[in-house]
Amino acid sequence: MANFQIVAREDFSAVTYLLEVHHPMMARAAQPGQFVIVMLNEQGERIPLTIADFDRNKGTITLVIQAVGKTTRQMQQECRVGTALYGLVGPMGIPSPLSHARKAICVGGGLGVAPIFPQARAMKENGAYVIGVVGFRNKELVFWEDKFRAVCDEFIICTDDGSAGIKGLVTTGIEQAIAAHPDIDEVIAIGPPIMMRGCAEATRPHGIKTMVSLNPVMVDGTGMCGGCRVKIGNQVKFACVDGPDFDGHQVDFDDLMTRLRRYTKEERMALDHWEASCRMHTAINTAVDTTTNR
User: Fold this and answer.
1) pLDDT digits over 240-262, tens only?
2) At what angle do helices 264-293 and 70-78 cross, to 10 degrees?
3) Which terminal Cβ of the chain has fewer Cβ within 10 Å, N or C?
């Protein structure tokens, strides 16, 4: 299997980091809304990551990752410029439909801020008036502000503590935008399920089309394993091949969040085992260094 070189890295916070990976064919094929399946090494698990950006001229795709589980923490530790990913499959999923909205709100919360950027850029390139709304816990976690301002006609930052932009959740930003623009045609939201549900409920009374990008448990990314099934209205869909974008007003978010918690115990065990191995490795290296110094 080919290796895919990491050509740039940026750390936004203690847990959030960016990897730019060289893959010319994927960069040419990628579209907003799509994702990739990544393997760090030959024994590693397959994890789905949304494509946060792509540069066809440089031949690269950009991934923004939050170190929350065993694999993403291991990637945070091991993925440096000059190293490579063992496996990278994609682009996968149905690209976000080219919207004909004249005025749209693109909403990103937490890690969803990164993948909403190509959506906002595509909207702007298609002639829409774009209002960007992004949410963070505090000012220190804000990233890509300049990139968003370059493609958004209006840009609203929301922080939990009010240290940047307006104080409140992204729904506060949505309500502010709707109050100023009653002619909003569409809202696109990406982020934690509870955030996307909040966005859908904020737009429901106004009858505004609201699309969300779902992140269920996924293994193969081809619809075979069935792990990524979600309930949309009275239908069962598979996020990897039918999505990941769905009508937010039809998504059963309770079912989605229940399924996301399904392997919490196993994920915790894998993380604990990896952390124990890291501590043991560090202790052995320290002992060897001490012996050598003698």
Assistant:
1) 888 888 999 999 988 888 877 76
2) 30
3) C
